[in-house]
Amino acid sequence: MAYSEKLLDHYENPRNIGSLDKSAEDVGTGLVGAPACGDVMKLQIKVGADGLIEDAKFKTFGCGSAIASSSLVTEWVKG
């Protein structure tokens, strides 16, 4: 199975890696996966006063498709 160019780009050049201040009232944090299985993702979003997502960050440990999809979702959810 061949990966798309977009997926490969997000794997090789992931966007929005990092963390937001988890103690901030406007930041929500989710964690999925299991270290025993190999893939773990932390996703954080910052929600503005208007209810829109202003920023998103991730940290993913796992395979290339997990990293790429995490990067892509952080771009999709903003705004």
Could you provide a short overview of the structure?
This protein is α+β, with helices and mostly antiparallel strands and 79 residues long. It contains 2 helices and 3 strands.
The total domain count is 1
Q: Helical percent range?
A: 25-40%
Class by SSE composition: alpha+beta
* CATH structural architecture: Alpha-Beta Complex
Number of E-type strands: 3
Query: Helix count, per DSSP?
Result: 2
Could you give the distance between the termini?
33 Å
Indicate the overall shape.
Answer: flat
CATH fold-level assignment: Sufe protein. Chain: A
Please trace the helix and strand order, writing H or E for each element.
HEEEH
- Largest sheet properties: 3 strands, antiparallel
On the 0-100 scale, what is the average pLDDT?
A: 94
Oligomerization state: single chain
Tell me the Rg in angstroms. 13 Å
Strand order of the largest sheet: 1-2-3
Poorly predicted ranges: none
CATH class: Alpha Beta
- Beta fraction of the residues? 25-35%
Describe the structure.
By secondary structure, this protein is an alpha+beta fold. The chain has one domain (5-77): Sufe protein. Chain: A (Alpha-Beta Complex). It contains two helices and three strands. It has helices at residues 5-12, 64-77; strands at 27-33, 40-47, 53-61. It has a three-stranded antiparallel β-sheet with strand order 1-2-3, covered by helices on one side. Helix 1 (5-12) packs across helix 2. The longest helix is centred in the last third of the chain and has 14 residues, at 64-77.
